[in-house]
Amino acid sequence: MREDEAKGGMGRRGLGRMLPAAALLAGGALLRPAPARAATRAEIDAEVAAALVRLRELPETRALFPAARAVMVFPRIISGGFIVGGQFGEGAALRNGANAGYYNIAGVSFGLLVGAQASGLAMFFMTDESIAALMRADGWEIGTGPTVVAINQGDQVNFTATTAAQPVYAITFNQQGLMAAVALNGSKISRINPD
Predict the structure, then answer these.
(1) Which single residue of 79, 104, 140, 179 could bond 87 by disulfide (Cβ 3.0 to 4.6 Å)?
(2) Together in a domain, 182 and 115
(3) Are 116 and 70 part of one and the same domain?
(4) pLDDT at 43
(5) What number is the average pLDDT over the span 174-178?
(6) Which positions ≥6 away from 102 have C-beta within 8 Å?
């Protein structure tokens, strides 16, 4: 027995056994919902309108907007955690330029995660079947229905309204433009009724 362990202290072995447990506790604490107020309809509408201006400027979205039957925009998704991570955001769906409802997106991911980031997400629904999956009363868990193709920064988007073959295209963006995709599989999109 080492001297520090004999005196009741913690040696390297004891510390090594406690680190995994401490990491799990820290990850759970970060996932615990903080008291926050939900955004109002006016706040969501304003953020979605500002995000749409940025999105329409991106070359990657020029062929998507005219071909999409609906567009869902989450202007700000907060992702973060330590070992176990989570993400949450609120946004709106638009059909024919009009609001078709308010939604939130929430998910949990596992892996080597440290810190937090904020990004936006736009989903372009290209078929009536993909819109039907979204409109189900119990929500839509991504990965259990229509295929979602994530378009990452630097991807070439060379299609037109006649060549867009996937049901849903997803683009992650921030103030500077397109960015690497957030983890979407397992995230659930649910309808909300903000004030």
Answers:
(1) 79
(2) yes
(3) yes
(4) 97
(5) 60
(6) 41, 44, 90, 91, 92, 93, 191, 192, 193, 194
For 14-30, the pLDDT digits (tens) are 434 433 443 333 444 44
| Pair (158, 126) in one structural domain | yes
3-state secondary structure the chain: CCHHHHCCCCCHHHHHHHHHHHHHHHHHHHHCCCCCCCCCHHHHHHHHHHHHHHHHHCHHHCCHHHHCCEEEEEEEEEEEEEEEEEEEEEEEEEECCEEEEEEEEEEEEEEEEEEEEEEEEEEEECCHHHHHHHHCCCCEECCCCCCEEEECCCCCCCCCCCCCCCCEEEEEEECCEECCCCCCCCCEEEEECCC
Chain segment 103-146, per-residue pLDDT in tens? 999 987 655 455 567 789 999 999 999 998 888 877 888 888 78
The number of domains in the chain is 2
Full-model pTM? 0.72
